[in-house]
Amino acid sequence: MLKPFHTQGLLEAGCDEAGRGCLAGPVSAAAVILPEDFYHKKLNDSKQLSEKDRYTLREVILKDAIAYGVTMVDHKEIDQINILKASILGMHRSLDQLDPRPEHILVDGNRFLPYNFIPYQCVVKGDAKFLSIAAASVLAKTYRDDLMKEMHAKYPQYHWDRNKGYPTVDHRKAIQEHGPSPIHRMSFKLLKS
Asked: Are 25 and 147 in contact (CB under 8 A)?
């Protein structure tokens, strides 16, 4: 069972990103402050959930969260500053949207940069340990998936409705056949050879 908080009595924001390993599109980041008594039996790491459950949970999180923020860092910025910096930048921009401000930050993973002198804790596999990080993972994933479905309508040859920009066999085959799209990350290894 996921823990409701790391430090009791503080307004704690969970942060996570989605799309870091993709070849195309933005990296999406979210920050969420949940009430201390928040509970939902299905809330877990977004990778463990069905698509239907992710979208159902998104509505619950948007309704019940004390505050949330979601941002996208696009392929151009990723190419300029690298994917790790883009992921952290996205989390910082999502934290900027929170009102009230958090007093403590929980970050999924092992890398982060200080944000506005607010104490933070990196938690490896945090989206499977803390509710606020799991909530952030659901928002980051669903909002990014929505965008990649829109992009699929513009560039159907890459099958982003199915692969969401991840390096699947059919995605790489489409890059080989059609070349990269305007939203591919050119700093990434798009083809294996």
From this structure: yes
